[in-house]
Amino acid sequence: MPMNIAIDGPVGAGKSSIADLVAQRLGILHLDTGAMYRAFGLYALRMGADMNDEQAMAALIEQADIQAVCENGEQRTLLFGEDVSALIRTGEVSAAASAVSRWPAVRRSMVRAQQAMAAKADMLIDGRDIGTRVLADSPCKIYLTASAEERARRRYLQQMEKGDTTPYEQVLFELNARDLQDMTRETEPLRQAEDAVLLDTTGMTIEQSVEAIVKIVEEVYGKQS
Ligand code: DC
Questions:
Q1: In this structure, is residue 167 part of a structural domain?
Q2: Which residue's CA is minimally distant from atom 20 of ligand 1?
Q3: Is 16 within a domain?
Q4: pTM of the model
């Protein structure tokens, strides 16, 4: 059985950056499932599809060719072979990803692809339904969170570094709106799995968060060299 670690949590909890570092430390792959939903959101935007139309979304996911590949230790997300890794990081695509991810047919397709990848290799997977669905049988689940204000502050600073001047209040508003949508959708809403360890990183540095997660993993799988 491969070593499969599940990390879930709300927007801006630091899942992706922390998971990347933890996976590096453990020498295993990191799959960012949010990037796959984002790629589908981008596809829906490009096709001008109605994201509120369940039938249209079910038909569109059947045609979509989305792949997550690892190149030089980094995930590249491909949409029909085009590397869209940078294009999927906009606010517009974030909102689209959250909107399309509420449809059962979309989730089924994504979950199937993610479980197939996890069956083949040691992997740390982050998302919203990893502990509750994709890796429901994993013995190692972490629910990563921080206060909404801290998550918004981190995101605001990250965006500022990239030259994005969206005000803090708007970042906080959008983060709360996306969390609400992700936590209240009918199909596999974001929630902490009963057997997940809760890690609140408010006031913690990235390094401290990485250490805390490595410790949790080692408690389950033993010390990793
Ligand atoms: O982790 P992220 O912000 O890149 O995810 C983008 C959106 O995709 C998020 O708002 C909800 C959705 N998502 C999901 O429904 N299930 C996952 N496993 C990962 C992401």
A1: yes
A2: 34
A3: yes
A4: 0.94
User: Measuring from atom 10 of ligand 1, which residue has the nearest CA?
Assistant: 98
CB contact at 8 A, 34 and 129: no
Q: 54 vs 80, 90, 104, 186, CA distance in Å?
A: 22, 24, 9, 13
pLDDT at 223: 84
CA of 180 to the centre of ligand 1 (A): 12
Atom of ligand 1 nearest to the CA of 101: 15
Tell me, rounded to whole angstroms, the distance of Cα 127 from its chain centroid.
3
**Within-domain flag for 25:** yes
Task: Choose one of 18, 20, 98 to mutate for the ligand 1 pocket test, by most ligand atoms within 8 angstroms of C-beta.
Answer: 98
Any domain includes 38: yes
Rounded Cα distance, 36 and 65, in Å: 10
What CATH number is associated with residue 215? 3.40.50.300
Residue 100 Cα to ligand 1 middle (Å): 10
Domains identified in the chain, total number:
1
Note whether 193 and 6 are within 8 A (CB): yes
Question: How does pLDDT run across 84-141, given as a tens digit for each residue?
Answer: 999 999 989 999 999 999 999 999 999 999 999 999 999 999 999 999 999 999 999 9
Per the structure, the complete domain to which residue 161 belongs is given by 4-219
User: CA-to-CA distance for 55 and 191, rounded, in angstroms?
Assistant: 26
Which stretches in the chain have pLDDT values below 50? none
Percent residues over pLDDT 90 in the chain? 90
